[in-house]
Amino acid sequence: xxxxxxxxxxxxxxxxxxxxxxxxxxxxxxxxxxxxxxxxxxxxxxxxxxxxxxxxxxxxxxxxxxxxxxxxxxxxxxxxxxxxxxxxxxxxxxxxxxxxxxxxxxxxxxxxxxxxxxxxxxxxxxxxxxxxxxxxxxxxxxxxxxxxxxxxxxxxxxxxxxxxxxxxxxxxxxxxxxxxxxxxxxxxxxxxxxxxxxxxxxxxxxxxxxxxxxxxxxxxxxxxxxxxxxxxxxxxxxxxxxxxxxxxxxxxxxxxxxxxxxxxxxxxxxxxxxxxxxxxxxxxxxxxxxxxxxxxxxxxxxxxxxxxxxxxxxxxx
Length: 317
Prior knowledge:
The chain is about 45% helix and about 10% strand. It is α/β, with parallel strands linked by helices.
């Protein structure tokens, strides 16, 4: 099978030559291509990438952005330009070892759709990187239902078909296993080597954790409610309506037992607000249902995914 290795690159002029050589050595036994996506580097990385592309025309592809768009955009561009049946992602900072890629590909050949690297012995600062990452990983695993120790590890291998049907935005690249799990992909996590950064500077800090948590809301909605948004909005509207009935019941009891006038109680205003919010939420759910149907029908998108079909000729076999 052809292997496409995607490497997002941003200001890694000190590492890129060694990284390229390590990748070529690790992948010598594979039919492969290296897709290096420059994310608006300003330190001379582009010139080094041009030289590598000139030296290795057969295996090296360089995609250069006009400006910095972020790691997710770089990965999305690499996927768009990849030709391989198996797609591997890896960082350019040499903290992840290219020698681990054959192990990931071997797991793909065993029948898995996603093989996720796990930096079991991580060589980063504990308080600013490792601890926030562990918290984020636990939260993502709980919300999405796809249990992984290390969503943040870029080193992952995918069958091409599990990457089809969605676009990447924000910091969404780390959620690809969750998207794949949502369509029934077989996922496995394997320990990989992690090394301390020797040259260059880390591009992300503690602030990235907060962006990931915000993106998690979007991912949960897309995985669980994109096809039936009425379940989310309607459920919320039902709870708000039920709360308004409960508060109204409390007002009735207070009127009977304590002879309190309803119009003088601020709880009456709360009843009205809860009821209106509940109805609005249900209406939003109905509108979202129409939008979901328009989205699927206008683009001929199916609401299911098929792994294979036996004894039936056609494109899905």
